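Q: Here's a chain of 340 amino acids. Please give me its 3D structure as tokens.
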Amino acid sequence: MSTEILEINPSNIDLVKIRKAAAIIKEGGLVAFPTETVYGLGADALNPLSCAKIFEAKNRPLNDPLIVHIADKQDIFKLAKEIYKRTLDLIDEFWPGPLTLVLKKSQNTPEIVTAGLDTVALRMPNNKIALSLIKEAQSPIAAPSANLFGRPSPTTAQHVFDDLKGRIDLILDGGNTQVGVESTILDLTQTPFRILRPGGIDIETLRAIIPDIEPYHGNQILSPGMFKRHYSPKAKVIVAEDGNPERVKDIASEFLLQGYSVGIMAKAENKTSYNGDFNLKIIGPERNLALCAANLYSLLREFDKDGTEIIIAESVKEEGLGITIMDRLRKAAAKENHVQ
């Protein structure tokens, strides 16, 4: 299979290109497309055979459910049930946007999409290309991140091509994504509501609408992004939890003496603290966690392209998007690729 790339301007969408992509979806093929978070790998969510191709293309375990993307808020009633006022309040406030809601699934939702669970994960992306594609496909689109399973999620079309060339039909190149990390996943089937995966909307913002929301601390795979090891580059990742540049340099020096190629992912505030034979990359200023999140996956992929073997990442403060950044770094650094 050859993988075609079509450039598309999100400010002036070429419907001819969108319709070409939608035709592939309708015919059971796979199309990668940008959302505001990361690039997604899309298939017709109502076609089980098409959705099976997603798992094959990504080498994704079948027990890892998919997120279904919609372009019309009313479609939630077709794919889910037991939808109450508080659910609608969240939808009105945050859709379109980087919030995925886990609800009890309806009989219309194929089992392969939900990995056999009785719930379905739904969201409406805040990206004109994505919304146009869903509308033209005339069906909800199941779309995990458009990368090989376990790798850093793609924030550019080139990232998608690097991982999935020859495995999928088409990539819609809409430029860099804005948020740079995946959506927040909120389980509405339990009380209190539970955040299964931190993401582009932080817990305090959600609590302003629904106060009784808590992080989930269990080990079950209830949504995407819950494997212990995930978002990992080829290089070994070490998270310097205290964020102290002197400690980072000590760790880096130890690996350099052993002959490894070492990279350091540092905050802008600490840029001048480093000198030596390190591959230094700046994630952004800690006062701008949105920029840090947008840069995270690109930097992890850049280290791999540079041939870096060990990445030592400074921590960021765990508030707002910092919680999401630290979640992704810890999963990238984890040794195991499963949960119980």
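Q: Can you summarize the key feature?
A: The radius of gyration is 20 Å.
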